[in-house]
Amino acid sequence: MRLYVDDEPISLDDADVREYARTLDMRTGVLERRVVWETPSGKRVRMRDQRLVSFEERHLAVLRLEVVVENANAPVTISCQLLNRQDGAGVYAGSPMTTKGAAFDPRKAERIADRVLEPAEHWQDGLRSALSYRVAASGMTVAVVADHIIETENDYNVRTLIEPDIAKNVFRVQAKAGVPITITKLVSYHSSRGVPPRELVDRCRRSLDRAADEGVETVFRRQREWLDAFWERSDVQIGGRDDLQQATRWCLFQLAQASARADGAGVPAKGLTGSGYSGHYFWDTEIYVLPFLTYTTPRWAYNALRARVKMLPAARRRAAQLNEAGALFPWRTINGEEASAYYAAGTAQYHINADISFALGKYVRATGDEAFLRREGADVAIETARLWATLGFWRGSRLVEQSGAGDGLQTFHIHGVTGPDEYTTVVNDNLYTNVMARYNLRYAAKVVREIRDSYPEDYAALVERTGLGSGEAESWERAAEAMYIPYSESLGIHPQDSLFLEREVWDLANTPADQRPLVLHFHPLKADFDYYDPLTTGDSTLSAVVQSILAAEVGYQDLAQKYFEQSLFVDLHDLHHNAADGVHVASAGGVWTALVVRDNAYIATLEDEVIVPLANQGPVIPGRPTLQEFADARRDDGTRLSASVPVITSAIPVIENLD
Ligand SMILES: OC[C@H]1O[C@H](O[C@H]2O[C@H](CO)[C@@H](O)[C@H](O)[C@H]2O)[C@H](O)[C@@H](O)[C@@H]1O
Question: Which residues are within 8 A (CB) of 525 and not within 5 positions of it... i.e. 6 or more apart?
């Protein structure tokens, strides 16, 4: 919605702005801007615009602009537009192509030179405009329809324009001093993998008709009610530090925006806030976001997991392409097909399989939704376990003979993978991958056994769907028990992979005695933390939250605070200088995890108290364990749980095999 007074546009870059405030109200779900602008001829224009993207009506957005020229009569024009910025020409086009020679940044969405959206139906009917398209490459379809409502006692007329890439509803108002003008624009979007554009236009019309019947105020009221309920079950209250409190709520709000209406799709790394990573989903969803969803709104976690279930056919094809059994989920994707351009920092991150099974296990454990597991979740656990069984291999090992692990003769290894450290690609026996694969194998075996023993009909259906063979589950358990977990006796740490310590020599001679990693006086992970923390670049915003949790766990409160605040403010303070590409959703999820992790000693040092409703209000779902009760529970794969929430590290006792 563009505003002109005396045919001059308001351009905030050089306008004489006397008052300005932009507010995101996280209780009402409305973004509001208030501006007082003085035109070169001295006319004082007060404007307030509001934007709401409905949580409840997935296809609806409302924009409202109120304008009043306070001290004079003036011609005021408000031009409401729908623009195809991707393909539209001239002044309406989107941002220019990246300048030649600029370094390629895989986090930014690339701009496509050819036409992307082929126009389909477009029309104007009174103050209602419609544009629709078919995506040239994929055949997907999209439609947008907008309604416009004007309220004013001033005289006005309306001009409209409709073309394939633009629709305009232009309100020309003879504004009298002090007489307000309010324009409300209701917009509906629908998209599909292939439904004809005309059908989508009809869906948009229905969404708008319903909003018109109920009234715009109802849309605003419902948004508020929806958020009241969200905060009731999700808020974390921090006493004594308003800055931390506000930023925490901002993170939780981002998580809601990214996940609440993802419905059958995944949760993109940037949510819906920017074009960074082209809308792709990664392990961010399962490891960083699902803990929050599982414990606050299990339905959203379920939806995200179902999105993975729907990707199983593509994941099976991908595994077959790579000559492996089972399924391999894509490292980055939208529709289930692998979208990584670079194998080493993409597909080679096989750990995505285990990340998904891990999140599935946590979800079922916390919610008790075992019916989902039997209906379709088990297929994910089974197919991912199968991949590890063929990707990995058995090898003789003296170490294991001594420790008595496995069958006493051999260890199970996984070679040629990339772990979460994407700077050290395609390695052998990556610690994170092996630990997570071990979980995946055990969990799949446990699920199969439980269904086999207690639900014979479901078991028969599962065998039918997956071709599960007798003895398969037992073979996974054997591989899990013999999983090779890299460990350096001399340093007392877990090397990141089998050759990691050969990359750099530890300068023991110049390391003060109390800082030697061998000194394992405190926490079993302290030596690991001491070793890895200085080596961690923190280039990824996924790092700081994990470092914060671990620092607190091993006793470094200052570091815990530093890393926590880095995560909390990564976007609000634009600490990575790329907030314009979109919000770091995984970091926002990690902030919640850091706050609720049991006995987070740093959090405990905050002035007053941290209140996590879930922890204090009793079971999320009657009969299921609370966050606190998870503390001394046993893990899904039968071993002991060391922390209350499913964070990457503390929930997995990585040294378990060496005890
Ligand atoms: O920055 C370039 C790299 O971006 C991806 O990795 C990082 O972002 C992902 C999405 O948030 C996250 O899942 C991953 O852990 C981060 O390291 C991508 O996977 C890389 O291929 C790419 O080089």
Answer: 550, 553, 554, 649, 650, 654
For residue 609, how far is its CA from the centre of ligand 1 (angstroms)? 35
Residue 107 Cβ < 6 Å to ligand 1: yes
Does the Cβ of 346 fall within 6 Å of ligand 1? yes
Whole-angstrom distance, CA of residue 184 vs CA of residue 170: 13
The low-confidence residues of the chain, meaning pLDDT below 70, are 89-107, 109, 397-409, 504-509, 511-524, 598-659
Residue 102 carries which side chain, given as an amino acid letter?
Answer: A
Distances in Å between the Cα of 257 and the Cα atoms of 151, 266, 268 are 31, 13, 11
Longest distance between any two alpha carbons in the chain, whole Å? 92
Taking the CA of residue 621 as centre, how many other CA atoms within 13 Å lie in the half-sphere pointing to its CB?
A: 14
Residue 419, pLDDT score: 96
Does ligand 1 lie within 6 Å of residue 538's CB atom? no
Give CA–CA dist 371/581, Å, rounded: 39
pLDDT at 518: 42
Write the single-letter amino acid at 474.
E
User: Best mutation site among 104, 107, 331, 332 for ligand 1, i.e. most ligand atoms within 8 A of its Cβ?
Assistant: 107
Protein residue whose Cα sits closest to atom 8 of ligand 1: 540
Three-class SS state of 608: coil
DSSP letter (8 states) at residue 99: P
Catalytic status, residue 121: no
In this structure, which long-range contacts are made by residues 245-249, counting pairs with CB atoms below 8 Å and at least 24 apart in sequence?
247/568, 247/569, 247/572, 248/568, 248/591, 248/595, 249/26
282 CB within 6 A, ligand 1: yes
Please report the atom of ligand 1 found closest to the CA of residue 277: 10
Look up residue 82 and give its two tokens. 């729908």
3-state secondary structure 500-526: HHHCCCCCHHHCCHHHCCCCCCCCCCH
Q: What is the pTM of this model?
A: 0.88
**Residues making up the chain, counted from first to last:** 659
* Active-site residue identified among 32, 66, 422, 656: 422
Determine the distance separating the centroid of ligand 1 and the alpha carbon of 346, expressed in angstroms.
8
Nearest CA to ligand 1 atom 16: 540
